[in-house]
TrEMBL record:
It comes from the Bacteria. The chain crosses the membrane at residues 142-160. One of its GO terms (cellular component) is membrane. It comes from Roseisolibacter agri. This is AB hydrolase-1 domain-containing protein. Residues 25-139 form the AB hydrolase-1 domain. InterPro entries: AB_hydrolase_1, AB_hydrolase_fold, AB_hydrolase_sf.
Length: 273
């Protein structure tokens, strides 16, 4: 990583948050790895007339803090709690996450069940118990993860945003250009921990089992997702009895961008927005 791209020491700033809508049920949205609050703005803007939308930037990306130190899943969960707890003071919320954001949503609900009513997990990278994530990423999921995330990450962060930032939209062609440009707001250190510690090294099944029984799961998935195995979702459904899985045929890992109307419809129908 270029020295010029390094972050300053941790300042204790909270996560970056954007709000839309003034009334209605509270719904918090967490983007996936490399994405910012703009990701969900592309998808759920029309819902602002009937719900209060809280778009939360993930630790390490966008305008949120980018820690220089390596951290486990507990750090982003604690940072989410800092912004979600005050927002949920008037009542429970629905927590919606895409990809990495879905995994962190589960971990947050496990540790702070007092204000989570619904979990909507979109394209969650659930690989099963133990170290199965490493095996999947090495084998079947390699093309999906490395093509979508790690190649742009490595080139931008190692060569420096100032040198190669212009090329990021050309490398990440499966997302709209503004979202691809958001990759320029990360650093290698801040993006490495979410990838290797939260996705690859964290046993998500343990969190799923421990989530309180009153919290309902809505899992939205695509059958052509090369980054998150659809077949493992049935195990997740078995681990938490209060869950339902809905599948869109013919879409990939970016199903919110490919089929935003379907995602919004599923949220509105299930969560009663």
């Amino acid at each position: 990583m270029a020295v010029a791209d390094a972050d300053h020491p941790d300042t204790g700033r909270p996560l970056y948050v954007r709000e839309h809508g003034a009334s209605g049920p509270l719904v918090a949205f967490l983007p996936g790895i490399g994405a910012t609050t703009r990701y969900w703005e592309f998808v759920v803007g029309p819902m602002a007339d009937r719900a209060r939308l809280l778009l939360v930037g993930q630790l390490g990306f966008g305008r949120s803090p980018k820690p220089w130190t390596t951290y486990s899943v507990e750090r982003p969960v604690a940072e989410l709690h800092r912004v979600l707890a005050p927002a949920a003071a008037r009542g429970p919320l629905t927590l919606v996450g895409h990809s990495l954001g879905a995994g962190l949503a589960v971990a947050s609900a496990d540790r702070h069940p007092e204000y989570v009513e619904w979990l909507a997990l979109v394209s969650i990278p659930y690989f099963g118990w133990g170290k199965l994530a490493k095996r999947y990423l090495r084998q079947r999921g390699a093309a999906g993860w490395f093509g979508t995330y790690m190649i742009p990450f490595a080139l931008v962060c190692l060569l420096g945003r100032r040198r190669l930032g212009w090329a990021v939209p050309l490398l990440a062609r499966d997302v709209p250009r503004p979202l691809a440009e958001d990759l320029n707001q990360m650093t290698w250190r801040s993006s490495a921990s979410p990838m290797w510690e939260v996705v690859d090294g964290h046993d998500l099944a343990v969190d799923v089992v421990r989530v309180a029984a009153h919290i309902r799961f809505l899992c939205l998935h695509a059958d052509a997702d090369a980054s998150a195995p659809l077949e493992q979702m049935h195990e997740l459904e078995w681990l938490h009895p209060n869950s339902v899985i809905r599948v869109y045929r013919g879409a990939d890992h970016q199903v919110p961008l490919r089929q935003p109307a379907w995602v919004c419809q599923q949220l509105a129908t299930s969560v009663a927005l």
